[in-house]
Specification:
mainly alpha; 8 helices; elongated
């Protein structure tokens, strides 16, 4: 008897579904951010603290090295303050801001810092801010990753400086606290629902 192996040619393979931009975003959020906190075996508070730290660093002008800052925060918190959180979840949640959302986020930080420092005077328009950012990115495009990262951060500090750094603080603190509260609530509800499902299935089996 001969075993016949069927080898599918590229023409017979099912075509990969093409997702829209919005569907792609939702898939990334689901599989990279939501599912990890659902599957976490740690106490809800431990996981929620990871979300909080990740969002807090995400809402700072440190795109590109946010995960490094999460790891440093984890080391300091664990070794010195005996305070622990999920560093992997924290790193994942830093991606709530990225190169796509950098311009509006940085502009929000800058305007907030200007308001804190000077009130509502001398606020640069978004278009001007965007042009400055694009010019900065083009300047770093011919460099290596770390050279361009250092150049972009240096120019950002020189052009927008103190307002940018001060303006991110309230958003970082508020975002971290909100992330902790919402994720803690979500995890507790998810686990309670799973527990109710297990009890329901157990009763169904016992009833049979």
């Amino acid at each position: 008897m001969f075993n016949i192996m069927c080898i599918s040619s590229p023409d017979t393979l099912p075509a990969r579904r093409k997702y829209s931009w919005w569907e792609g975003i939702k898939r990334v959020v689901k599989y990279k951010l939501v599912i990890p906190i659902k599957r976490s075996k740690h106490p809800p508070e431990y996981t929620a603290r990871g979300v909080a730290i990740g969002i807090a660093w995400a809402l700072t002008p440190s795109i590109g090295i946010q995960m490094v800052f999460c790891f440093i925060t984890w080391l300091v918190a664990k070794k010195i303050f005996k305070w622990d959180f999920s560093v992997l979840i924290a790193m994942a949640w830093t991606w709530t801001t990225n190169v796509v959302t950098a311009i509006p986020c940085f502009y929000l930080f800058f305007v907030t810092g200007q308001i804190i420092l000077k009130g509502f005077e001398d606020l640069s328009g978004y278009e001007q801010f965007s042009r400055q950012w694009d010019a900065m990115v083009r300047q770093g495009s011919e460099m290596s990753y770390f050279e361009s990262l250092w150049t972009e951060m240096s120019i950002a500090a020189e052009v927008w400086g103190v307002p940018l750094l001060i303006g991110c603080l309230p958003w970082s603190v508020f975002g971290g606290l909100l992330g902790y509260y919402l994720s803690l609530r979500f995890i507790r509800r998810h686990r309670a629902a799973k527990q109710r499902g297990r009890l329901h299935r157990k009763k169904a089996v016992e009833g049979n």
